[in-house]
Specification:
Chain lengths: 272, 401
């Protein structure tokens, strides 16, 4: 059983939902990434999505773009991201880590080389934003051969046929994009997500995480009622952006703890 | 004449290992809608007839093929013919594609069009057709380019378009394209994205090629009229590659006609400051398709450099990548210095100011013509006029207006 699957099963047994924070590796500087990952775990993260910086992050809004640019300026690349995960694993062998990024850095390394290196570093899953399922059969095979869960995106506009295609390939969980647009956009429609998630859940057979547009603890709590996992990215990156370097970990911890409480409390309220 | 069957891309937009659809799930429905709309439109005789009408009466097609006799005589070898896309309305081939896509947008009920632009030529063409069809138009342009191309920015504004400076990344064409994609994914219900070249996710490389293929089709009938046969080689510059695909595509079936794409070597391939994706790049994924890219060892896209802003793109259309690997087309390079020299030569010898992009193609023709017999024929796509480049040329010559 993969570490991701085990995490979701444990939470489900406890009647809990997963909190998945996203940060970009190397932002605000490479030395802070591993401490930040530990801070996320201490504040209640059940799984960490670690962004691999890319020069042309087409699907991301301005906040994640800026994080990517800051990391690239500090010389971060895919190899160094894998080193960061390995360093994190020296002190944490429980929390699953999912790399999220774009196809080209992985293809430049070679998908097979990447798969083996990611496994060695202790990565658990990989989400390639610009690999839709029809271009991913080979990629998903290579990931699974290296005990990595291939994670896929689904959107409100995804047809039944596409949900089924993702169901064929996905393991770990699927990432449901709750709105039209890029990361960090505003206004998430919880009602609309709630209507769609049961059907997606049934079709893909893995947990459904919801992200894009979750900007406050209240929304996170609402989403936790309908989804298996709550994914928070841009809001955390904004906090990183606004904090002096010596306060980044403390302020992120405070912010993420708030999300975490809202998710656990909502679960308790709804009696699930 | 050897005719080869050629029906690429496949249903998912692949040209061999290149092309395809590499976008986030959020963009898939927009691309599916576009693919379906285009599949119906291209078979609709009314759509085809209206496109032809617009090309004839609005653009001024067919553009002539001109025998550059004085230039050919001076070189003393092969005869050079120029396909005069510079005589089109708005001054370049870009308008052909913009009309086709604007007609599609109207057919799909989209009232707002967006476009990316580098130097501003595609932005001007998009703004022009938006004015012509009464559509709202937003053009994304890297803030560096906005500064460098003030005249074109003003021209777009005169045409009623909003020009949005893009501050992310390298603040140039590739970043403008990223930003246009972000706008599109956010406003997909009322917005049509007019991509300016044969790149982007499927169906763009195919539909831009189809709209530009009028260039090559005209040549196919013009060349026999003018000189009794098809040319020995067709030469065109390649940035993203739309003018080259437009003139190459109808010639693909004519196996004896050499197809030569000319990339920008900028300050020289060895300097690293160039835009020669096919010549020295490696395959990768950018802007929704797989093709040759300028990238570093870690797969980060690097900036392209060329004196000609229209060639200044770190990728290239996937069909060119396929034609290169298949050996059907050859790709060569011309430096900034060679292109600038050619600009002056063509001005003085033929009274034609070529766009610096097109000057790359002419420069290669001038390079190979002298060693060829006089009865050989080179057809060069003169994709645009050079008025827009006068300030660049003046600056490079140390002249101030």
């Amino acid at each position: 059983m993969s570490k991701i699957q085990a995490t979701f099963e444990r939470l489900q047994a406890q009647g809990q939902k997963a909190l998945i924070p996203f940060i970009t590796a190397g932002d605000p500087n490479p030395a802070l990434t591993v401490p930040l990952m530990h801070a996320l775990v201490e504040s209640g993260a059940d799984l960490i999505e670690l962004g691999v910086p890319f020069s042309d992050p087409m699907a991301d809004g301005p906040t994640v773009q800026r994080a990517s640019e800051r990391a690239l300026k500090k010389g971060v690349n895919l190899r160094r991201v894998l080193e960061m995960v390995a360093n994190f694993r020296a002190d944490n062998n429980e929390t699953p880590v999912v790399l999220m990024g774009y196809a080209n850095p992985i293809e430049a390394m070679d998908v097979h080389v990447f798969g083996a290196a990611a496994f060695d570093a202790g990565v658990d899953g990989v989400l390639v934003v610009d690999y839709p399922p029809e271009e991913s059969a080979e990629f998903a095979k290579v990931m699974r051969a290296n005990a990595l869960d291939p994670i896929f995106l689904l959107a409100p506009t995804s047809t039944e046929e596409r949900v089924a295609m993702v169901g064929e390939l996905a393991s770990g969980y699927v990432y449901y994009i709750s709105l039209k647009g890029v990361t960090g956009s505003s206004a998430l429609d919880v009602e609309a997500a709630a209507r769609r998630i049961p059907e997606i859940h049934a079709a893909v057979g893995v947990p459904v995480g919801v992200g894009f547009g979750i900007r406050d603890a209240w929304t996170a709590g609402m989403v936790a009622r309908v989804a298996d996992a709550v994914i928070v990215g841009s809001r955390i990156i904004e906090e990183i952006e606004e904090s002096p370097a010596d306060q980044v970990c403390a302020r992120v911890k405070e912010l993420v703890s708030g999300f975490s409480r809202a998710i656990r409390d909502r679960d308790a309220d709804s009696g699930s | 004449m050897t005719a080869t069957s050629y029906d690429l891309p496949d249903a998912r937009g692949h040209f061999g290992p290149y092309g395809g659809i590499f976008v986030a799930e959020t963009l898939i429905p927009a691309l599916t809608e576009l693919r379906d709309a285009y599949a119906t439109a291209r078979r609709d005789p009314r759509f085809v007839a209206e496109f032809e009408y617009e090309l004839k009466y609005y653009v001024g097609r067919p553009s002539p093929v001109y025998h550059a006799e004085r230039l050919s005589d001076e070189l003393g070898g092969a005869q050079i013919y120029l396909k005069r896309e510079d005589l089109n309305h708005t001054g370049a081939h870009k308008i052909n594609n913009c009309i086709g896509q604007a007609m599609l947008a109207r057919r799909m009920g989209k009232k707002r069009v967006i476009a990316e632009t580098g130097a501003g030529q595609h932005g001007v063409a998009a703004a022009t057709v938006a004015a012509r069809y009464g559509m709202e138009c937003v053009v994304y342009m890297g803030s560096e380019d906005v500064k460098r191309q003030a005249a074109n920015v003003y021209r777009m504004k005169l045409l009623g378009a909003a020009v949005v400076p893009v501050e992310s990344g390298s603040r140039t064409l590739k970043d403008a394209m990223n930003e246009a994609m972000r706008d599109w994914v956010t406003h997909v219900s009322d917005t049509f994205y007019i991509i300016g070249t044969v790149a982007g996710p499927h169906p763009y490389p195919m539909l831009v090629r189809d709209f530009q293929a009028v260039i090559g089709r005209e040549c196919l009938s013009q060349m026999p009229e003018l000189c009794g046969r098809q040319p020995d080689a067709v030469i065109a510059c390649v940035g993203g590659g739309s003018n080259a695909m437009g003139i190459f595509h109808p010639y693909l079936a004519h196996g004896h006609v050499r197809l030569i794409g000319v990339e920008a070597a900028g300050e020289g391939l060895a300097t690293g400051r160039h835009a020669a994706s096919l010549t020295v790049g490696r395959p990768g994924v950018l802007h929704g398709n797989r093709s040759y890219l300028l990238q570093d060892a870690h797969g980060q896209i690097v900036e392209a450099h060329s004196v000609s802003a229209g060639l200044d793109y770190p990728g290239v259309g996937p069909e060119h990548a396929w034609l290169k690997d298949a050996g059907r087309a050859e790709y060569v390079t011309i430096t900034d210095a060679e292109a600038l020299e050619t600009f002056h030569v063509l001005c003085r010898t033929e009274g034609i100011l070529p766009a610096l992009e097109s000057a790359h193609a002419v420069a290669h023709a001038m390079k190979i013509a002298p060693s060829m017999p006089k009865d050989k024929i080179l057809l060069v796509n003169l994709s645009g006029r050079g008025d827009k480049d006068m300030h660049t040329v003046a600056e490079k010559s140390g002249i101030q207006f």
